[in-house]
Amino acid sequence: MLLALLSGCSLTGIGSAFDGFGWPQGGITPQAHRMYDLWIASVIAALVVGFFVWGLIFWCIVRYRKRGDTLPVQTRFNMPLEILYTVTPVLIVAVLFYYTAIVQTDVDRLSAKPDITVEVVGFKWNWQFNYRNAPGIEAKTVASTLGSTDVIPLLVLPVGKKIRFEETSKDVIHSFWVPEMLFKRDVFPGNVRNVFEVTLDKEGRYIGRCAELCGTYHAFMQFELVVVSPERYDRFLAAKVAGASTEEAMGVIGFVGDERFAIRTSPIDTRRHGKSWYQDDAPAAVGK
Q1: Cβ atoms 236, 253 nearer than 8 A
Q2: Which of 211, 231, 229 is nearest to 221 (CA)?
Q3: What separation in angstroms does the CA of 208 have from each of 14, 197, 224, 247, 284?
Q4: What's the pLDDT score for residue 286?
Q5: pTM for this model (two decimals)
Q6: What pLDDT does 276 receive?
């Protein structure tokens, strides 16, 4: 009955009215929207069950409060009630598991031929993004962006395209996280490659972070996701393939001045415009 009721409601509207019930809002992928809807529906179901249980508790407190010294009727068990409070939780868990499995399967689904493949390489303490000509380790890198001690790396991607991320690390475990995706995936060293796909549905600039404590400068291991139209992305990639730097390629697609660099680093200002963000005693070749 609850699921039927919720199907006629806007979960996005309900979530916005209550600040997402603790879940971040403003997802920029269909996968993020599905996870958000699952969270809102689960919280509403939990609240309905909770209010029902609280109601029964307070009803028992009032209805069966002590009115004298006479003991109430003593019973050993009530079979219908025992069946009810055994079967009901099992049904609730089964329904939640069913919808969780559906959403999780959808989030982890890989297409046969993604539109764009990006290899994400994490290392202490920066990122490298390799634009590949196909999925898989046998594919070739056609262009690359490497973060340095002076410049935060930009990951430029188009809106409305299936994008496959293939992650690997050169040293320790990192974690690729763009908060607006409402999703993160660990980056492992060795032959383990985490692979996932998203479709970005909103243009804009979004901060990215490492979400796994990986060492001394973990907090500064940031990047910026720049989502543009497919036409601007094609021009950006063409400029990169032709030998332009990432900042020069950003200029080709209309970004000027500081817009060619990372501008979304809040709350940690690591804009690195020609000034090292490491301490004086830090390794000189961290970006390599």
Answers
A1: yes
A2: 211
A3: 28, 16, 5, 18, 24
A4: 39
A5: 0.78
A6: 44
Return d(Cα 222, Cα 262) in angstroms, integer. 10
Task: Say what the pLDDT of residue 282 is.
Answer: 38
The two three-digit tokens of residue 35, written as one number: 């996870």
- Tens digits of per-residue pLDDT, 149-184? 888 999 999 999 999 999 999 999 999 999 999 889
- Structure token digits, residue 52: 């029902």
Per-residue model confidence (pLDDT) at position 14: 61
> Is-contact 114 162, C-beta < 8 A?
yes
Residue 279: predicted pLDDT: 40
Instruction: Convert the pLDDT of each residue in 183-200 to its tens digit.
Output: 899 999 988 899 999 999
Domains of the chain: 2-108 (no CATH), 116-260 (2.60.40.420)
Q: In Å, how far from its chain's centre is CA 156?
A: 17
262 burial (CB, 10 Å; 0-12 / 13-18 / 19+) is buried
Residue with tokens 């992650």: 167
Backbone angles phi, psi at 244, to 5 degrees: -75, 150
Which residue is listed with tokens 């549905």? 201
At residue 275 the predicted structure's pLDDT band, cuts being 50, 70 and 90, is: very low
Taking the C-alpha atoms of residue 22 and residue 208, their distance in angstroms, rounded to an integer, is 20
Q: Which residues contact 178 (CB under 8 A, 6 or more apart)?
A: 184, 206, 207, 208, 209, 225
